[in-house]
Write a structure and sequence with these properties.
ligase, BirA Bifunctional Protein, domain 2, 12 helices, 321 residues, 12 strands, binds zinc ion, aa-tRNA-synth_II/BPL/LPL, binds magnesium ion, alpha+beta, 3-stranded antiparallel beta sheet, binds adenosine-5'-triphosphate, single chain
Length: 321
């Protein structure tokens, strides 16, 4: 029987590390320790071996939790087809977060102009054209067209296991809000009953996992940050209908806890867009659970301290066996 870890409070290393009176931010302390590595861009960081060893351990825990469910494991690169992205509807809800891959497609004269712009320090990007690839905004986005291409779902529906680097243009000084980060997901497709049972089960599993890691958590109704005035209504609907829940942990502060896992019921949104049918011909419903691998890692660092070798033995045992 595993020894239970008591939820650890926010560690006070902010004060401890500092000789001057100016407390250093969490991000600065992560840089100081080399856990994250500066690139000059907010939200774009290198990760140390220690940081990655925690990410990998959490990824393994997520695998262990889902073992036995018979999920089909798929891994996509962090880019997806632009036509698929356009059809997915992401640009309706989140045009401000999307990232596209542009490439140089010019001739010799265009090349010379590009180089002279670089030389002069002026804008060189004018000759860049949108390629057929965009950056994946959530691990499940490349999956729907792939599932749709297989035809109607079997009676039991489908279950997938995904992990991908994702991109969102939301630069921030909070280390928990990165522009490029990894999301581990399980995605269920089937009848409303099937996908809701899946979401319920993962709410329990995710909550238990985080408690066993000694993290103080709260499960809260949530909404996606839909863009613009029309977006406010979408967000309110999503919340009122209980379509999204987040598992929150204080990381940057006690009053603004961070969503470390999300549980999303899309109803027939993706089923309709991608024409995914249940075995009986009805439109498929979908749901996904997303683990923010960096966010869970950061929550552990924040609560158990920045020296992972000094973490409680029971926690180390749980992560690395
Ligand atoms: P938030 O409300 O904090 O912006 P979100 O609702 O956008 O989070 P989801 O879209 O549900 O999050 O993404 C699934 C998971 O991916 C989240 O639970 C979180 O753990 C992680 N995640 C989302 N955005 C980021 C980010 N910018 N940096 C790191 N992890 C993220
Ligand atoms: Zn998803
Ligand atoms: Mg967000």
């Amino acid at each position: 029987m595993d020894q239970l870890l008591a939820p650890a409070p926010l560690s006070d290393e902010v004060a401890d590390d500092e000789v001057s009176s100016e407390p250093r931010s969490l991000l600065d302390r992560l840089f100081d320790r080399g856990l994250l590595v500066r690139t000059g861009v907010d939200g774009l960081y290198g990760r140390s071996g220690d940081f990655e060893s925690v990410v990998e351990a959490i990824d393994r825990l997520a695998t262990k939790l889902g073992a036995g469910d018979g999920a089909e494991s798929l891994r996509f690169p962090p880019g997806m087809s632009r036509p698929a992205f356009e059809r997915s509807g992401y640009l309706k809800g989140f045009p401000n977060l999307a990232g596209t891959i542009h490439c140089f497609c010019g001739n010799d004269a265009d090349h010379a102009r590009l180089l002279s712009c670089i030389e002069a320090g002026t804008d060189w990007t004018g000759d860049q054209a949108a390629s057929e690839i965009v950056l994946t905004p959530a691990a499940c986005y490349p999956l729907y067209p792939v599932a749709a291409a297989r035809g109607a779902l079997p009676e039991a529906g489908l279950l997938f296991d995904l992990q991908s680097y994702c991109f969102r243009h939301e630069p921030s000084l909070e280390p928990t809000r990165m522009q490029m980060f990894r999301m581990r997901e399980y995605v269920r497709m089937g009848s409303p009953d099937q996908v809701l049972a899946f979401r319920e089960m993962w709410l329990e599993r995710g909550t238990a996992m985080m408690r066993e890691l000694g993290l103080p958590i709260a499960v809260d109704p949530a909404n996606d940050p839909f863009f613009g005035r029309a977006g406010r209504m979408l967000a309110n609907n999503q919340r009122a209908q209980g379509l999204k829940f987040e598992l929150n942990v204080p990381v940057n502060s006690e009053d603004k806890p961070t969503a470390c896992l999300s549980f999303n019921y899309h109803q027939d949104h993706f089923g309709t867009i991608w024409d995914i049918k249940q075995a009986d011909g009805e439109v498929a419903h979908t749901a996904c659970v997303g683990f923010g691998l960096e966010r869970i890692t950061l929550a552990l660092l924040r609560h158990h301290g920045l020296d992972i070798k000094a973490w409680p033995a029971a926690l180390r045992e749980r992560l690395w066996g």
